[in-house]
TrEMBL record:
Pfam families assigned to the protein according to its UniProt record, in alphabetical order: Pribosyl_synth (PF14572), Pribosyltran_N (PF13793)
Domain of life: Bacteria
Coiled-coil regions, chain positions: none
Keyword terms: Nucleotide biosynthesis
InterPro entries: Pribosyltran_N, PRTase-like, PRTase_dom, Rib-P_diPkinase
Domain Ribose-phosphate pyrophosphokinase N-terminal: 22-140
SMART domains linked: Pribosyltran_N (SM01400)
Family annotation (CDD domains): PRTases_typeI
Name recorded for this polypeptide: Ribose-phosphate pyrophosphokinase
PANTHER family with a match to the protein in the record: RIBOSE-PHOSPHATE DIPHOSPHOKINASE FAMILY MEMBER, RIBOSE-PHOSPHATE PYROPHOSPHOKINASE 1, CHLOROPLASTIC
Amino acid sequence: MREVETQARRFVPHWRRPHPLLFALEGSRVFGERLAAELELPISPLEERSFEDGEKKCRPLADVCGRDVFVVSGLERDASESVHDRLLKLLFFIATLKINGAARVTAIAPYLPYMRKDRQTKAQDPLTAAYVARFFETAGTDCLITMETHNLAAFQNAFRCRAINLVAYEAFAGHFAERILNQGVTVVSPDLGGAKRAEMFRERLETRLRRPVGLAFMEKQRSQGIVSGDLFAGDVDDRFVIILDDLISSGTTMLRAAKACAERGAREIHLCATHAVFSKPAAADLSAAFIDGIVVSDTIALAEPYRSDRRIAVIPVAHFFAEAAARAYEAGAE
Ligand SMILES: O=P(O)(O)OC[C@H]1O[C@H](OP(=O)(O)OP(=O)(O)O)[C@H](O)[C@@H]1O
């Protein structure tokens, strides 16, 4: 794993007095500290306790009455907490802030889970993306900030409170532009659902490189956990290929797209995804020799064994969140 340096800061926060409070829930201290540095705010103290029966308690130790509050929490699973533990803990904490008089609460969830189930594809399917949005609203969230949600249209339709989706394409494009020499370049979407994302990234990369960048797509269907579909559109022969997706979980999607590119003569194959969810089997799959590099952001802290993998570059994105949080604060104060 290689930590890539944060790009130059583009904003300086100006807080009125008293300044907003920033809380970082357990498991999010590293990202919280990066955010705190960007926002020039201290992390406020809180009490987190787990009880013998599995229930949790989370209490602010700074007086929140009348204050603007930012609360950051990673919502991915880690060794000590499940997605559900973290999601419920954040929702309870937001509700606690509100009943104790917080003026406005901005939830910062670098990775927002449950967004993949955004439509009914089978009879009586749940719509978890919409339910998660309702839970945040019910808890009293005034604004939610996340990055690279799975389906932007579904995300925007699900939330009635302010919901901001950030993207890291500019940072990814900058990273690749420094490494691509005079090769032809193609951005590949590993499924049709990601076509718009790939196109947006391709445009940024083209601007950086000042020459045309190609686009390619692969077919993908997922049913009962089995991924299928072999159609491939676009030219990757002898090209520097970047396969772009929102997240890597098992790695199945990226691996099959990378294989398809290798079979079609790609010269170099790089995977690029905002969220390194990396559920267990990904480790073995992504070590394939035809994968030259993997670029992710730090929305999710890398678990072992990925930390020692030199092919993985991690792009910091806390500054995007800091700027969005500061803007949301300014807008709310108008
Ligand atoms: O690493 P993996 O385990 O393969 O998971 C990652 C994939 O899952 C999501 O798409 P999904 O399969 O839900 O498809 P969709 O675009 O049809 O919603 C996501 O956009 C990735 O493509």
